[in-house]
Each structure stands twice: as C-alpha cells, then as structure tokens.
Amino acid sequence: MNLFMFVYMYMYIIGILSLCLVHKHVFMCLLSLEFIILSLFLLLYYYLVSFNFEFYFVLIFLTFSVCEGVMGLSVLVSLIRSHGNDYLKSFSLVMC
C-alpha cells in the first residue's frame, strides 16, 4: 500500500478516536464526524484515481456528506435554541 493510503487510514482512526473520547459538546462530535467523512472522501478518491474509475460516485458522496453536515448543524442550532448550550449532559436524549 502506498504512503497516502496509510495517511488516510490514520486520519480515519484518529477521527473515530476523537469521536469516542471527546464528547462533551455536540459541536465537537459534529467536527469529528466531518473529519471522518473527509478522510473517507480522500480514501475513496485515492482508490478511484489509482484504478482509473469514474468520479460520479465521489460527487454523490460529497452531496450526501454536505447534506449530513447541514442536518447536523440544524440539530445543533435547534438544541442551542431549546437548551441554551451544546453540552451533551445538559439534556436528556429522550425528549418529551
């Protein structure tokens, strides 16, 4: 495997670890998820370039990742408006 492949895999593992270890704020969880999506995008792009495949799937993947980011930010804004902060421990996950 190439050096770039190792770097992208390392980015993915660091993103998973940061999602598991740093979970005090919702915003930090969203940033970790975006970092994981970025590393998966780079890994997919490297794979498609190395085997000379077409890039339509990369465009679809970017579209879905942007939609995921927008939905995460809308949930963050909704939580801040309803609870006043973005701490995960300040609200119950089962909302009435």
Automatic annotation (TrEMBL):
Keywords: Membrane, Mitochondrion, NAD, Translocase, Transmembrane, Transmembrane helix. It comes from the Eukaryota. The chain crosses the membrane at residues 6-22, 29-49, 55-80. Coiled coil: none annotated. GO terms for cellular component: membrane. It is found in: Membrane. It catalyses: a ubiquinone + NADH + 5 H(+)(in) = a ubiquinol + NAD(+) + 4 H(+)(out). It is a multi-pass membrane protein. One of its GO terms (molecular function) is NADH dehydrogenase (ubiquinone) activity. Belongs to the complex I subunit 4L family. This is NADH-ubiquinone oxidoreductase chain 4L.
